[in-house]
Amino acid sequence: MDIYFIISLLALGAFTGFFAGLFGIGGGGIMVPMLTLLFAQQQFPVEHVVHMALATSMAAIVPTAIASLRAHHKHKAVLWAVVIKITPGILLGTFAGTFLASYLSATPLAIFFSCFMALVALQMVFNRKPPATGTLPGTIALSATGSGIGAISALVAIGGGTLTVPFLVWCNVALPVAIGTSAAVGLPIALSGAVGYAINGLHVANLPAHSLGYIFWPAVLAMAAVSFLTAPLGAKLAHRLPVALLKKLFALLLVGLSLQMLVSVLG
């Protein structure tokens, strides 16, 4: 690994942590396209760079998810009954999603990621919230919903907040509690996704050294270490900066990064 690569990973971790603290996001929307670009520049196998980016992002989200869960739990903003009921489906759906992702080639994965992030960006720009017209379903329905959230989260390496929060708000859960509960759900998503990608990549040939399956551990450690320092800074500045404007600019950044990912894969 050259020094440029290491510095780039540290910078990516700092950048991701800051915006995770500022907007309450998991960071997959930034990490996946940037890791795809960096891995391609390091001449990692081109057919696996997207899989490795997804896997590495999932593993890097784990410590962030733990910190976020603890913070929201301290504020009594987690519906643990919902977390317990939805987690079996989350674990199953996320784990299964890693097998689907591993089966797909890099191109359809990159296209799906880019389209999904475009939808996320539009939601951030227009700030549309679902009407609170539903109620929390029973255990089976919650688990089934969790399976869908987990599967999509595995394909785009997110903690599930962009899907879980709107679902809970639609079920008449107050927004702060929906965010806190989503943060708690993000941990099983990240854990199951990381384990699934590690297992699926165990027998893949030509992966770089220091990889566990599709997870490239030097990147995980570098990004996680720095993001822990910058996430509190972003959270602190969330009340001082024009967040509404920054969200719109961040949405444009997500679209630009997704397009760059497509260029890296298709080019």
From TrEMBL:
Its main location: membrane. Keywords: Cell membrane, Membrane, Transmembrane, Transmembrane helix. It is a multi-pass membrane protein. The keyword Cell membrane applies. Belongs to the 4-toluene sulfonate uptake permease (TSUP) (TC 2.A.102) family. PANTHER family: MEMBRANE TRANSPORTER PROTEIN HI_0806-RELATED. This is Probable membrane transporter protein.
